[in-house]
Specification:
five-stranded antiparallel β-sheet, 288 residues, Umud Fragment, subunit A
Length: 288
């Protein structure tokens, strides 16, 4: 299409959309797609670096909240011939089974300890053999959650391990623990925040967490959670300045602050806030 403007002797050609697309050719279309892909990549890297990162739970230290083990879940009959809802976790490279029973009133799993596989009831053993599968939860982590504020008690935190390159020791309540060296294949841990600098953290005789002499009531999770005291008859620790204590929910199978002491705040990577796999358990993570 050719047109002219009054007073302008030179004719002008108006290009239609179809003609414009043809003039670009295949290379032009490819360049547009490449621009879009580069923008998407840069945006994804920005989000991963400064906003949200995805993690897979590699172990069972946060069970039953977050799973990373061979598990079986369902109804089985206990020693009193009563039907219960269980979460059974088969420890890797052993025949020990961790037993969690769902409380009928609260809906929370209560830890009942470890048992040899052969000592389970026939119904529990059938559940284990029928439903055993590897279940590794995948979570989203808010990386800027602690840029301007400290964690809250009960937060599920992701952090770089504070271990040294060589084996070290940690002394608590008259006992010396050997702390494993840094392992780059286990460079990130997931635990629950339980105490902060300046606080006196204790585990009471009934295995509850106490802060400054008082059992923790909030968030509600701590009313039901029970913690084991490894290697000593008491747990009483004053949290050092600039550090916090983190425990795993699976108290009988968690390598945490009870064994190696405080976690420096600078080691925090972020706050776990959402589980996106498996799909049947998708949802936001809360304090219980």
């Amino acid at each position: 299409m050719v047109s002219s403007v009054p007073g302008d002797p030179s004719p002008r050609k108006w290009v239609t959309d179809e003609e414009s697309a043809e003039s670009k050719g295949v290379l032009g279309v490819i360049r547009e797609w490449l621009d879009a892909l580069v923008f998407a990549f840069v945006l994804a890297m920005f989000i991963r670096t400064f906003a949200v990162e995805l993690f897979k739970i590699p172990s069972g230290s946060m069970s039953p909240t977050l799973l990373g083990d061979y598990v079986a879940e369902g109804i089985a009959v206990d020693e009193t011939a009563r039907e219960r809802y269980y979460l059974l976790i088969l420890e890797r490279s052993s025949d020990l089974v961790q037993i969690f029973r769902k409380d009928e009133l609260t809906g929370r799993y209560l830890y009942e300890g470890k048992r040899w596989r052969g000592s389970l009831t026939q119904s529990q053993l059938s559940l284990l053999e029928r439903d055993l599968h590897l279940e590794e939860h995948h979570i989203c982590v808010n990386k800027f959650a602690y840029w301007f504020a400290k964690p809250e008690r009960g937060d599920i935190v992701v952090f770089r391990v504070p271990f040294k390159r060589e084996p070290s020791v940690y002394t608590r309540n008259g006992y010396t623990f050997r702390v494993q060296p840094y392992n780059r294949y286990q460079g990130v841990y997931v635990k629950r925040a339980v105490a902060f600098d300046g606080e006196l953290a204790e585990i009471t005789s009934d295995k509850r967490l106490a802060i400054n002499g008082k059992p923790v009531e909030t968030p509600e999770f701590f009313k039901y959670q029970r913690y084991e005291i490894p290697n000593t008859v008491e747990y009483s620790v004053k949290v050092p300045e600039g550090q916090m204590l983190v425990f795993g929910d699976n108290t009988g199978n968690s390598y945490d602050s009870r064994f190696w002491g405080g976690l420096p705040y600078v080691n925090l990577r972020g706050k776990a806030f959402f589980r996106y796999r498996p799909l049947k358990k998708i949802g936001f993570l809360n304090h219980w």
